[in-house]
Amino acid sequence: MAARGGFSNKFGFIMAAAGSAVGLGNIWKFPFEVVDGGGAAFVIIYLLCCFLLCFPVMIAEVAIGRKTNLNAVESFKKLGFPRWSFIGLMGIISGVLILSFYNVVAGWTIGFTFQMIQGNFEIGQQFGHFIADWKTIMIYSTVFMIATAYIVAQGVSGGIEKASKILMPTLLVIIIGLTLYSFTQEGAMNGVEYYLIPDFSKVTIQTIYGALGQAFFSLSLGMGALITYGSYVGKKDNLISSAVYITLADVSIATLAGLMMFAFLFSQNLPYDEGGAGLIYTVLPGAFASMGSTLGPILGTLFFLLLSFAALTSTVSLLEVPVAYLVDTFGLRRKRAVWLTAGGIYLLGIPSLLGNGAVPELTEFITYVGANKAASFMDFVEGIASNTMLPIGGFLICIFTTYVWNTKNLVEEVKNGNPEFANSWIASYVTFALKYLCPIILGVISIVTILDKFL
Ligand code: PHE
């Protein structure tokens, strides 16, 4: 088999995996999910899901990948359980679906970068119009998919790792700056209150379902992305501390982005519960406008540019999953696998692109989630792939790790690079969570929501 490449060191892995985790999920999706989930209670449930449920799943995924040095499908076979490789196949399908619509939102983001360069802050109010112009968005999305494919074609340490190392820290700095600035705006504290003071009386099963799906999406879990990235990690690297850094980076960027968004949102008196997927695109231009005609365009441009890059390090991981499969399993040359997959996924994304005003049937595709809310084709794919398939993928990974592979083997694998692990409380928690906590909670929520949707 051809050399697969790998991350050059632990830092490279952390940056690439944090690059995968931090993306549109944190900055675009998280705030409108918070609105859908009713505010602060959602935020708290989301945080609990990340630390208590997702963290153990992350350890399991990375350990499976590193143990086998293979992609999301082959790794199950190498461990000796070929029947379970369907988990990897399901993950590939989830990833393909996610990338198909994610690429469209990334297109909006590039478009906004150009609008900010021109200082066109009015664009916030014309968002609906902006995304309905499918021809322009299509150009941006095409550029974005080509950029993703180009990086993935460069291979693991050359492309994926290098891009993440520079872009991630810069994004964090600008978000911290914007958050501090947002606090100086009048009325910002109402937003902070909405975001931080929970009202648990409004929590429903839908809130929990949304928070759980968001946690999986944001941490790139449940679809084999971290099995694949784990397969490129060195045996001497400490998986636990890596996973802690990745989780903290992701969760802190999401929570900070939320804080900033709600401060800006309430200070501008915008109708916060109508925006849906357009929330950040309607709110942020107003915030940049308030900074004046010099600073506004500069920071606006920088922000959307960095958001595009954050999205890029995520799309790279989404594309890497099917590519690694084609390379390892079918012996395809990396470049060929990349362009084939990227092309296919791009085509699959066209209905999502057209469903934002251009084609009415796709724009009002379905009424779902038990809510009386019309949803576009994109909302529909997003609902299925991120909120349903990822937690189910996570559930299956827990079942596989504990009842098929055996947690003893997991612990053995994690001990490489972390010899004290076996006796640590983290090991006890991770095994407990993978065995009981995660499967029960993920299983119950998945079943209840599926029944709720289809019955
Ligand atoms: N975590 C990414 C984000 O928040 C999206 C993603 C999901 C990437 C699943 C890979 C796998 O933007």
Structure characterization notes:
The chain is an all-alpha fold. The chain is built from 19 helices and two strands. It has one domain: Amino acid/polyamine transporter I (Up-down Bundle), CATH 1.20.1740. A hairpin with a 4-residue loop joins strand 1 and strand 2. It starts with 9 loop residues before the first helix and ends with a helix. The structure holds phenylalanine.
Instruction: Count the DSSP helices.
Output: 19
For the largest sheet, list the strands in their spatial order.
Answer: 1-2
Chemical compounds bound to the protein: phenylalanine
Radius of gyration: 21 Å
In the CATH scheme, the class would be: Mainly Alpha
Order of helices and strands: HHHHHHHHHHHHHHHHHEEHH
- Domains, number: 1
According to DSSP, the number of beta strands is 2
Helix and strand content put the structural class at mainly alpha
Subcellular location: Membrane
Keywords: Membrane, Transmembrane, Transmembrane helix, Transport
Transmembrane segments: 12-28, 40-64, 84-117, 137-154, 166-183, 203-227, 239-266, 278-295, 302-325, 337-359, 380-405, 425-451
InterPro entries: Na/ntran_symport, SNS_sf, YocR/YhdH-like
